[in-house]
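User: Here's a chain of 88 residues. Predict its fold as tokens.
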Amino acid sequence: MAEIWWVWLAGAAVLAILEILAPAFVFLGFAIGAAVVGAALWLGLSVGWPWLVMGFAVVSLIAWLGLRAALGVRKGQVKIWDRDINEN
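Assistant: Prediction complete.
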């Protein structure tokens, strides 16, 4: 089942929908990874499922790092807490 191209593309679509429901650029990186693996299988890549999972992990990490660099936290956006709300 892991070597069927449409399964990867369907997984990418589900992850993209999850990203819309919970926007944090986490699911989008995984969706990009699944879409790339699905496209590679569709184009005729023929490798075993461990290599597919490894490719998915690598592409997802690269996509997440790219999204984080392009759309992530900006300078001055980080909140620094100077006191705890539980302290009186």
